[in-house]
C-alpha cells in the first residue's frame, strides 16, 4: 500500500479531492477484515467510482477547458463564412480546388499531401516533413473527420478541413495536440492507390484489343482483294 500511495495521490492532482493516508489505510484494513462498520464494500466501490468520474471531469476542465472553448469559438465563427460548408456531423470544409476524379471508398488506400494546424495557426504535422511523396493510408484508418472528408472528395481536389475535437482525437493527449483540440487541415487528394495501375492496364488492354481489330480488318481486306 505504501508503494501504491504516491501514484494514487497523483491521480487526484488538480482535482477538488485528495487522499488522506490514514483514512486510506483504515479503509484498506476494514476491507481485509470485512468490517462494514463505516460502509459496505459495495457502497465504497460505488462512491470511489463516482468520485473518480467527478474528479476526472474537474481535472480535465482545469487543464484543457480553455483549449476546448477556443476550438468551439473558432468553429462557431468559422461556419458563418460563405465559403464554408458544414456537414450534419459538425465537420466544416472549404473547397480550394475541385477535382474531377473518382471519389474514394472508406476501404480505399488514398494518396494525399496535407498540412495540419491548431486553431492558433501552429503547424503540428505535414506530409512534406516526411518526404516529397504523398502520404498513403486507408481512408477508414484516420480520424473521423478525415474519413468523412476523403469519402466525399474527388481525386484532384484540395480542401481545407475544420474538424471539431469529437471528430479528431477527442480526449486523447497526442503530445503537441492537446485533448479537446479542434484541428485545421489542408488536404490534397492526389490519387487512390492501385487506381493508376488499373487505368494503365485498362489502357493497354484497349490498345491490344484495337490492334487485334485492325489486324483482323486488314486480313479481311487482303482476302477480298485476292478473290478479285
Notes on the structure:
It contains five helices and seven strands. The chain is α+β, with helices and mostly antiparallel strands and 228 residues long. Strands 1, 2, 3, 4, 5, 6 and 7 form a seven-stranded antiparallel beta sheet that branches.
List keywords for this structure.
228 residues, alpha+beta, seven-stranded antiparallel β-sheet, 43% helix, 18% strand, elongated
Short description:
This protein is α+β, with helices and mostly antiparallel strands.
Mean pLDDT: 86
Structural class of the secondary structure composition? Answer: alpha+beta
Query: Could you describe the largest sheet, including whether it forms a barrel?
Result: 7 strands, antiparallel
Q: How far is the N terminus from the C terminus?
A: 108 Å
The portion of residues forming beta strands comes to 15-25%
Q: Report the total helices.
A: 5
Return residue spans where pLDDT drops below 50 for at least 5 consecutive residues: none
Report the count of strand segments: 7
Helix content: 40-55%
Quaternary structure annotation: single chain
Q: What series of H and E elements makes up the topology?
A: HHHEEEEEHEEH
Shape: elongated
Radius of gyration: 30 Å
